[in-house]
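Amino acid chain:
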Amino acid sequence: MKHTFITILLLFLSLTSFAHSSLEASHTFHISDVHYQVFNDTLNKKTKIEVTYPNSSTVWTISEPAKIEWETINIASEKSIRFFLALNDMVVQELGTFKNSFSADDIVLAKNISTGDSYQVVGIELFPDNKYQIAKYATSYFSIRNPEADARKAAYEARNREKPAGVKAPSEKTIEPVTQFDGRNISYVEEVVFENEDITIEVWDHGRQDDDIVSIYLNGKTVISKHLLTYRRKQVTCTLEKGKPNDLFLYAHNLGKSPPNTVSIEITDGSTSKKIILNSDLKSCEAVKISVKQ
């Protein structure tokens, strides 16, 4: 009986020791697995941006300052993030470049932005440590309201309804019809006047580099041909024609990775300069009218 009890006790101790060893081994493997995952994430240093505000329920009003809130992974606080406002995938305003402080207040929205429900804020990491991996984020669609512009539009439409057919009000501005180039519509977005006819034009990618290839035409002549846009500025000098508006327009040869092609342009005559953003796709071109002051 005594021998049987000792045998049972030894068997129990053996089983306990085995279970403890198995648990210890399992625990060691788990810790090792976690260490490997942390090491792997640190080694890769994959960056990430997530804009938490605005969101799908947000409504911005043009007359009020806007706010952006975001979160990041593996982006240092001294790094910067650039934000854009887009409408139907087209950039309509650069909202600003901010340090990675997770929020930005008092952003002034452009007065010409129209009421709509298809706006997005796009955030892009600037000067990443890994140039082949750039963090970017686009919010879901949200709404913007421009009551003043809506009121002006309503008043204009009311005047047109009251006005006899064929009669044009003296104060109305004539809208020049859209012209064409190579089968594409050209629409003028701005008019600029300079003191001197000799100008310098600089172009670079607006937003992120996404392999956009463009040409720039002045009065139908190529001044920049099939240029791959980067953050580095491409510079050319040109001479304007006096006594007539000069047409400068953007022509897209592809759509890049994020259509449409969006280009930042700075034009200077030596004394004054003007920065303009132009968009273009495979069906339309945006243009600027440039005149020399008489």
Summary: The longest strand covers residues 184-194. Confidence is low (pLDDT under 50) at residues 18-32, 165-177. Residues 44 and 130 are 10 Å apart (CA to CA).
